[in-house]
């Protein structure tokens, strides 16, 4: 049977490439910073411009009004962040905005597509490295058209674990985040890393460079595309308490296998965050 979402998948890859070129070619003016939820939650003209390009092209291509859109910058401006059964695009135009502003060389365009609340495909374009990661449900994961798979390491002592500290700098949360990182580092693991973009972090797990990435405080647009890529590369997604992964919960562990995921989960100090779809 023909894939009902093939056109959407192919088009998402094309749009991600166009968006990545805009980010790569952004002039100095376009990295000028404004803040959103707090002093370290950054946004630039480029985030807004790229989101407009992506959503505009998707609407033009699939513009019969049946598709919904959840985009980081649209939500920041008050658009709803509710996942319904309708075909829905979930978009982070510039994942790693802080990196982008500082010239730290990991920035990704993240585009996912869900139908009936199930993720159908994900595209992550790590545009400064020119790496196009993509995965279609049931059809494997790829980087620049080469198949990728998660690492087969089962021994936590031989792992590299990725995490991030996000933008919430309240002392209670930062203390829990660093306490978790300290415990994981002292298991010991080979190393702790963080690229500054959740989407890229997930692709690093999918391609076997790291065994796991976890974070509390990420948003659905940071991880939706990466979630398909990790799964299709043979990995798994869980909630930070070991329960089922919930895209809107802002909590996630992605890992190469359950042994590594469970060992990480044992150390995670959970703190409360407001869900993406909270009223
Ligand atoms: C951020 C990045 C970062 C993660 C934050 C995200 P943004 O996304 O993915 O790695 O730690 O939680 O908000 O704001 O650059 O799109």
From TrEMBL:
Keywords from the UniProt entry: Cytoplasm, Hydrolase, Lithium, Magnesium, Metal-binding
GO molecular function list: fructose-1-phosphatase activity; glucose-1-phosphatase activity; glucose-6-phosphatase activity; glycerol-2-phosphatase activity; inositol monophosphate 1-phosphatase activity; inositol monophosphate 3-phosphatase activity; inositol monophosphate 4-phosphatase activity; metal ion binding
Protein EC: 3.1.3.25
Annotated localization: Cytoplasm
Catalyzed chemical reaction(s): beta-D-fructose 1-phosphate + H2O = D-fructose + phosphate; 1D-myo-inositol 2-phosphate + H2O = myo-inositol + phosphate; scyllo-inositol 1-phosphate + H2O = scyllo-inositol + phosphate; 1D-myo-inositol 4-phosphate + H2O = myo-inositol + phosphate
Domain of life where this protein originates: Eukaryota
Cofactor(s) this protein requires: Mg(2+)
GO biological process, one term: inositol biosynthetic process
Pfam families: Inositol_P
Amino-acid positions noted as binding Mg(2+) in the UniProt annotation, renumbered to this chain: 72, 92, 95, 222
One GO cellular component, as annotated: cytoplasm
Annotated PROSITE patterns: IMP_1 (PS00629), IMP_2 (PS00630)
Pathway(s) this gene product operates in, as recorded in its UniProt entry: Polyol metabolism; myo-inositol biosynthesis; myo-inositol from D-glucose 6-phosphate: step 2/2
Primary residence: cytoplasm
Family: Belongs to the inositol monophosphatase superfamily.
Quaternary context: Homodimer.
Protein name per the record: Inositol-1-monophosphatase
């Amino acid at each position: 049977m023909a894939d009902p979402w093939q056109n959407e998948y192919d088009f998402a890859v094309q749009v991600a490439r166009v968006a990545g070129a805009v980010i790569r070619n952004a002039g100095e003016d376009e990295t000028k910073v404004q803040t959103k939820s707090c002093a370290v939650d950054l946004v630039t003209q480029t985030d807004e411009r790229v989101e407009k390009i992506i959503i505009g092209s998707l609407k033009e291509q699939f513009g019969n009004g049946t598709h919904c859109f959840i985009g980081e910058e649209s939500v920041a401006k008050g658009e709803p962040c509710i996942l319904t059964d309708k075909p829905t695009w979930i978009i982070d135009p510039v994942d790693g905005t802080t990196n982008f502003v500082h010239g730290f060389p990991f920035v990704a365009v993240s585009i996912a597509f869900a139908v009936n609340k199930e993720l159908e495909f994900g595209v992550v374009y790590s545009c400064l490295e020119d790496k196009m990661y993509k995965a279609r449900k049931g059809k494997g994961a790829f980087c620049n058209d080469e198949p990728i798979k998660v690492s087969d390491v089962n021994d936590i002592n031989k792992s590299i674990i990725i995490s991030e500290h996000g933008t919430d700098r309240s002392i209670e949360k930062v203390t829990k985040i660093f306490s978790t990182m300290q415990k994981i580092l002292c298991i010991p693991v080979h190393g702790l890393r963080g690229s500054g973009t959740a989407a890229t972090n997930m692709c690093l797990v999918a391609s076997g460079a790291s065994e796991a990435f976890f974070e509390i405080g990420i948003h659905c647009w940071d991880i939706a595309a990466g979630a398909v890529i990790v799964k299709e590369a043979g990995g798994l997604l869980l909630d930070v308490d070991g329960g089922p992964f919930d895209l809107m919960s802002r909590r996630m562990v992605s890992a190469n296998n359950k042994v590594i995921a469970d060992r990480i989960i044992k150390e995670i100090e959970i703190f409360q965050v407001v869900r993406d779809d909270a009223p």
